[in-house]
Amino acid sequence: MSSPTALPSRSALRDVLQPAVIVGALGYFVDIYDLTLVSILRIPSLRSLGYSGEALINHGLDLLNWQMIGMLFGGIFFGVLGDKVGRLATLFGSILLYSLANLANGFVHSLDAYLVLRFIAGFGLAGELGGSITLVSEVLSKETRAYGTTLVATVGVLGAVVGGLVAGSPHIDWRTSYFIGGGLGLALLLLRVSVAESGMFNQLKTQAAGVSRGRFFALFTDWTRFNKYVRCILIGLPSWFVVGVLVTLSPEFARALGIVGEIKAGYAVSTLYLGLTAGDLASGLLSQWLGSRRKVVLGFILLTVGWIAAYFLSAGATAGWFYTVIFFLGVGIGYWAVFVTIGAEQFGTNLRATVATTVPNFVRGAVVPITLGFKVCKEHFGLLPGAMIVGGVCLALALWALHGLEETHGKDLDYFEPV
């Protein structure tokens, strides 16, 4: 296990700043930019298509859900592809698909086409983060991989900040925002050629050719693997409750709370992800300094509990205060980098890409039951109580799941699962 240190040395920085890390960070930047466009552009795009009133909430959630369902299936496809064919195949295929889908999204003129293209874009977006984290985890030493995954996540979430500024600008049409996302993705493909395949994966292919790779259903045939896998997913639920409900619908919650001043979805998303950037950086460095992934995730989940409470206790507050709460909600859910790293570190090389890619996308896919549950609770209990109930369930499940996971800081990853 590495000695606890808050910041990497110069030699460690040289080790971390490899093409796989740099390109992975830029890829995740474009990924997050594209991923958050639905939340940012929900109102202007749907109004452009002729919708108003309650339809802005319902169809907005439908768009988000179709994108997340796409990510659910895409996570399985690209995860298995990463373990069977290679980590780079996942990254190339993922970015090409979501880039083309976002370009096409700029031409939609019906809700049905919009929904289908968000599904395709989500399918493509599913491979970026898991593929990058898997590759970075395997090309860096166990002493420095936390720095690498932290850098990927920290730079990546800034994509939402830029997305909020671009897509939230009154001078940029919502269609142009999708064109920009697609163009950035295609430009990134040119940088991929400098990235080499994981040595661990190549060694597994040549020296352990008989080992089964990418067997997704093997995660469900053994209780120990299944238990770890489910717990890895559940610890991420609070993140997408905050993103999918509290921030996506922040204009509606602000009105219900009587916030003084206008809350814009684009600015809310940018503010959240600015906090997420700070949180990802802090959580990654803290996990290295404390020598523990679990302690850091626990602390950040509890921080999220406190700021969710502040969100609902903000009745009559100013818009400035509400944006401040959203920023610290972002800090609280900023354990995303550590969360994805935990998933990658729990399993052997022959299942690592499958797990690292499906876990974050199953969490994103959980937005569907989260938002459907919120709709049901909203109808029975009202907007604010309904959100409190769903949020409470997500937080309770995350804390339960974390309690049963092993500590993986400093774990040797050069092994395979007996499947």
Query: What is the average of the pLDDT values?
Result: 86
List segments where confidence is low: pLDDT < 50 over at least 5 consecutive residues.
1-6
The helix/strand series, from N terminus to C terminus, equals HHHHHHHHHHHHHHHHHHHH
Alpha-beta classification: mainly alpha
Largest sheet: none
Describe the structure using short key phrases:
Growth Hormone, Chain: A; globular; 419 residues; mainly alpha; 20 helices
Helix and strand layout, with pairings?
Elements: H1 10-16, H2 19-35, H3 37-48, H4 54-84, H5 87-105, H6 111-139, H7 145-167, H8 174-192, H9 199-207, H10 218-221, H11 223-234, H12 237-247, H13 250-257, H14 265-290, H15 293-312, H16 319-332, H17 336-345, H18 349-365, H19 367-381, H20 383-403
Helix pairs in contact: 2-6, 2-7, 2-8, 3-4, 3-8, 3-14, 4-5, 4-6, 4-18, 5-6, 5-8, 6-7, 6-17, 6-18, 7-14, 7-17, 11-18, 11-20, 12-19, 12-20, 14-15, 14-16, 15-16, 15-20, 17-18, 19-20
Short description:
By secondary structure, this protein is mostly helical. The chain has one domain: Growth Hormone, Chain: A. The protein is built from 20 helices and no strands.
